[in-house]
């Protein structure tokens, strides 16, 4: 049994300890207030200006190499790893819905420690019948499942084929832009529950037709109305001929600023790289400055669309992006 004297002594020690703690807290608060009042007393904050986005490349960059049998799709992860990239983007027209290819790509990507940042699936909503629209929806749903299997957090989508003559040359008689818009929004909305369940963001590319401009992208994104539907900005697709980088109809830097609230993925188009690591048509120093300013943290996926051998251009494209990004 403790005596009354012992209990009183313990109580006194507790009070002294508590008072000492309060004194330390008060001193810390006073010091903090003094530093705030005197900026010279506060050490300057060091800000890392390097834009720490991950760098990837799309299989679309290597169409020529695939056609000429210089590159096999299954060797793509190893090649990109050797090039110093962080991740890869896989297009549906090279995966072909072939589960033998899909499984092996996943195994090899894991072996080389390279991520799969996105799967890209094509669509065309300039269709004349409900059955044709349903086939487009089914294709996107199939690649949503494939992206989930591959561990890709993004499914890049579009609304039609795009080059200097498309989609104008393939729009069926009687089909309007308004009809294509309604079909696209309806289809994308129908995919949102599955995308959310799988944890995959649908990202809409500026890709001609009803998704040609930044305003078009924003209009569709807001019409779909989901956090699981965002924007993929392609720096080179604001040109009438995205395969050659001619006739720009919208400034890609201004477009980046406009879509910033919805931006979840970027394609960095490259047609050529100079000896001093610049793209002659697109100012990537300014582009990365915009990305830093808007706080973009997603990946940058290179799309090489130039006339030179893509295998020879790969190291130059990577070096260009690393120089503009800063850091390692």
Write the layout of secondary structure elements.
Layout: H1 4-37, E1 55-58, H2 63-67, H3 76-82, E2 87-91, H4 92-95, H5 99-111, E3 115-120, H6 130-150, E4 154-157, H7 177-198, E5 201-205, H8 214-224, E6 229-234, E7 239-241, E8 246-248, H9 252-259, E9 263-270, H10 284-294, E10 300-304, H11 310-325
Parallel strand pairs: 1-2, 1-10, 2-3, 3-4, 4-5, 5-6, 6-9, 9-10
Antiparallel strand pairs: 7-8
Helix pairs in contact: 6-7, 7-8, 8-9, 9-10
Descriptive labels:
single chain, 328 residues, alpha/beta, TIM Barrel, 2 domains, eight-stranded parallel β-barrel, two-stranded antiparallel sheet, 46% helix, globular, disordered N terminus
Strand content: 5-15%
How many structural domains? 2
- The computed structural class is alpha/beta
* Helix segment tally: 11
Mean pLDDT: 89
Please name the CATH topology of the largest domain. TIM Barrel
C-alpha Rg, in Å? 27 Å
Per CATH, the architecture of the largest domain is Alpha-Beta Barrel
Can you walk me through this structure?
There is one protein chain. The chain has 328 residues and is of the alpha/beta class. The protein has 2 domains: 4-41; 55-325, Divalent-metal-dependent TIM barrel enzymes (TIM Barrel, Alpha-Beta Barrel). 46% of the residues lie in helices and 15% in strands. It has helices at residues 4-37, 63-67, 76-82, 92-95, 99-111, 130-150, 177-198, 214-224, 252-259, 284-294, 310-325, and strands spanning 55-58, 87-91, 115-120, 154-157, 201-205, 229-234, 239-241, 246-248, 263-270, 300-304. Mean pLDDT is 89; it is low at 1-48.
